[in-house]
Design goal:
Strand 1 and strand 2 form a beta hairpin. This protein is of the alpha+beta class. The longest helix is centred in the last third of the chain and has 34 residues. About 35% of the residues lie in helices and about 20% in strands.
Length: about 450
């Protein structure tokens, strides 16, 4: 940390210290040109000036800005700028006003509800899957590098140790990061793949569920041996009520052999989604039990699935959760962020804004598709008008279905959006027509 807090770095007005670590100090700052609060991370001067490690450290520091600047995902902390001001090297990031990380919820006294943990790690899986599509490995996934907003949304941060897969540029080699969260191949300094991040995320998941890390030792040598050769205690050793499905997910995520591990973040997220739906029924009140043939017959008669083949309808059945709501229940809350959409099997729902009904949707209609397509917050409430049966489908499960099945979903979404735009245009036209027919006011009044 600098001995005195600078008043200005680059164009940014510096405020209080938000935190400090081995690689730098983070300050709360303001961009005077747009009036936005940001977080400015300043590198440790002594490390930058070191004749042996200075160049390596500088590369690592600006690596964070370079890589994070490529990524644009709601669950990855965005980087806005980077630069050098005199002897100070800095990067500018989004300011997180909660100052909490997952590390605040990894002890027996601070554990979050299991369903919330699954939701958080699910979002991390999706964010890593996104980064991995750019051939970027984070290499330092751990609780303190996963930030939480006040709304308990997640942001993966600190890409200073990240690397490109198959890049021609020189990479930061050696054991870098936090050994407790490293994969066996990372500790052995082998060539890394995206599966090293998924192992690390599995360690975080275990710690958030058990209240302690899966691998614990008195020294680094013993810790490395455990990670390479020993299995961690079962979750039920610490939490006897833990569902077996989560045990299986942990076991797969922490497989010593990368080939036996989750091969990508989407697969990891899919299993977590299934665990959430099947074991906790978060959105189901009450859950409904309908045999597979009945489900097929229900979907077959709906106009939504008119162009789907029988095989694709069976895909939908396997990729969806069937839920039932009573009259007057809120299914979707305005302001929620979700990558799920719904298709009404029976009953009616009202789309409302400030307690005003905008439209009533019926059997065969869908809702939530805009949130699914754009990953934006919900702009209205959806409330049941009658008892309702519907299916809930999330993006991960659809992405794992066949290309033809995905294509049919997008075609239905497109038709739905076009029909809604037509209705809106007609309503506007009628309103304008009525306005034109109004009598002119007498100027003498």
């Amino acid at each position: 940390m600098l001995k005195t807090i600078p008043k200005k770095i680059g164009k940014f007005d510096i405020g209080r210290v938000l935190g400090s670590g081995s690689t730098g100090t983070v300050y709360l700052a303001e961009d005077p040109f747009i009036g936005r609060q940001v977080a400015v991370k300043v590198a440790v001067n002594d490390l930058m000036a070191d004749p042996k490690e200075g160049a390596r450290y500088r590369k690592m520091f600006f690596n964070e800005a370079k890589i994070a600047g490529i990524l644009n995902h709601p669950n990855i902390l965005p980087t806005f700028d980077a630069g050098i001001d005199g002897k100070l090297c800095y990067i500018v990031m989004e300011y997180m006003d909660s100052e909490k990380t997952l590390a605040d919820f990894c002890t027996p006294e601070t554990l979050l509800p299991v369903e919330k943990v699954i939701e958080i790690i699910y979002k991390c899986c999706k964010a890593l899957a996104y980064a991995h599509r750019f051939n970027i490995i984070h290499r330092d996934i751990k609780p303190s590098n996963i930030l939480l907003t006040k709304e308990m949304d997640v942001k993966i941060a600190d890409f200073s140790l990240a690397q490109y897969i198959q890049s021609d540029s020189t990479q930061l080699m050696g054991i870098v990061g936090s050994p407790r969260y490293m994969s066996p191949e990372q500790l052995n300094e082998e060539v890394l793949t995206i599966r090293t991040d998924l192992f690390s995320l599995g360690v975080v998941l275990y710690e958030m569920l058990a209240g302690c890390p899966p691998f614990q030792a008195e020294n680094v040598t013993s810790l490395i041996y455990q990670i390479a050769y020993e299995d961690p205690p079962p979750l039920r050793y610490y939490q006897p009520e833990m569902p077996e499905m989560l045990e299986l997910i942990i076991r797969k995520a922490l497989n010593k052999n990368p080939e036996g591990r989750y091969q990508n973040g989407e697969d990891f997220a899919s299993d977590l989604s299934q665990a959430l739906s099947q074991k906790f029924n978060i959105d189901q009140d009450p859950s409904t039990e309908i045999n597979q043939k009945q489900r097929f017959n229900h979907l077959k008669k709906l106009n939504f699935f008119k162009e789907f083949t029988d095989l694709e309808i069976w895909e939908v059945i396997r990729a969806s959760v069937w839920v039932e709501f009573h009259q007057g229940q809120i299914i979707v809350h305005e302001g929620d962020v979700s990558d799920s959409f719904y298709v009404i099997i029976s009953g009616k729902v009202d789309v409302t804004k400030e307690d005003i009904t905008i439209v009533t949707l019926n059997e065969g209609d869908c809702f939530g598709e805009m949130g699914y397509l754009t990953h934006t917050i919900r702009s209205a409430d959806v409330v049941t008008n009658t008892n309702v049966m519907l299916i809930k489908v999330n993006s991960t499960l659809i992405e794992r279905s066949s290309p033809n099945c995905q294509l049919h979903f997008y075609k239905v979404f497109l038709k739905t959006l076009i029909n809604r735009l037509k209705k809106t245009s007609n309503m506007i036209s009628k309103h304008e027509g009525s306005a034109l027919k109004l009598p002119q006011r007498d100027s003498s009044l």
